[in-house]
């Protein structure tokens, strides 16, 4: 629709992450009940669930970034590589490394679920499953709000998303998301600070 702006969707980014996190937490809970002694299998299953929910969209984008950003090339050539549907060696290595990191993190989080006797202890251990995708999308909002980070292409997706972006609603969404991270107490605070710092720093670079 001509009146539709992609920027209107930006304040909803963290809440999409929140819903994804709820699915991951539910999956972790069920796997912990069904097979508490198999954290490796549970971690791999959660990783597959995560990729399935997002349609592997962000994994594909990460491969494009790894192919173009981690090699010494001029900007114009980097943009050509990002547009190329083929995947190079850097993209494959970047994807494998990312999946290994996610798998290791999910497996360790499943280990922490084992032996949680009380309901409160179990809920506390499940909170990080919710916060990780939430914080990842909060980082996207912060990057879009930083006008000093240029878009790769004037006509690209990033530029279209910035059109119609309401800073007020985006900041309100970020504040509410930050409030949710306090459910993880000091660990939640550490997660949001580290996650947002990494996302913003990578975008600035």
* CA-based gyration radius: 18 Å
Tell me the fraction of residues in β-strands, as a range. Answer: under 5%
* H/E topology pattern: HHHHHHHHH
Number of strands: 0
Average pLDDT for all residues: 87
Give the uncertain stretches in residue-range form: none
Specify the structural class. mainly alpha
Distance between the first and last residues' Cα: 34 Å
- Shape type: globular
Number of DSSP helices?
9
Measured as a percent range, the helix fraction is over 70%
What does the largest sheet look like?
none
Provide a descriptive summary of the structure in words:
This protein has 205 residues and is an all-alpha fold. It is built from 9 helices and no strands. Helix 2 (39-54) packs across helix 5 (89-113), helix 3 (57-69) runs antiparallel to helix 4 (75-83) and helix 3 crosses helix 5. It is globular.
């Amino acid at each position: 629709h001509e009146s539709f702006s992609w920027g209107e969707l930006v304040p909803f980014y963290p809440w999409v992450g929140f819903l994804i996190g709820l699915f991951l937490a539910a999956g972790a809970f069920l796997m912990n009940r069904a097979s508490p002694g198999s954290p490796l299998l549970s971690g791999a299953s959660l990783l597959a669930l995560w990729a399935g929910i997002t349609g592997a969209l962000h994994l594909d984008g990460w491969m494009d970034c790894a192919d173009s950003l981690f090699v010494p090339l001029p900007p114009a050539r980097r943009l050509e590589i990002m547009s190329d549907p083929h995947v190079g060696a850097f993209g494959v290595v970047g994807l494998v490394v990312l999946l290994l990191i996610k798998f290791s993190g999910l497996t360790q989080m499943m280990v922490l679920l084992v032996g949680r006797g009380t309901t409160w202890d179990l809920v506390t251990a499940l909170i990080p499953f919710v916060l990780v995708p939430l914080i990842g999308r909060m980082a996207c909002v912060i990057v879009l709000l930083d006008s000093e980070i240029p878009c790769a292409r004037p006509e690209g997706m990033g530029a279209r998303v910035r059109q119609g972006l309401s800073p007020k609603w985006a900041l309100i969404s970020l504040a509410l998301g930050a409030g949710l991270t306090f459910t993880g107490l000091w660990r939640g605070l550490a997660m949001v600070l580290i996650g947002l710092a990494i996302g913003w720093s990578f975008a600035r670079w």
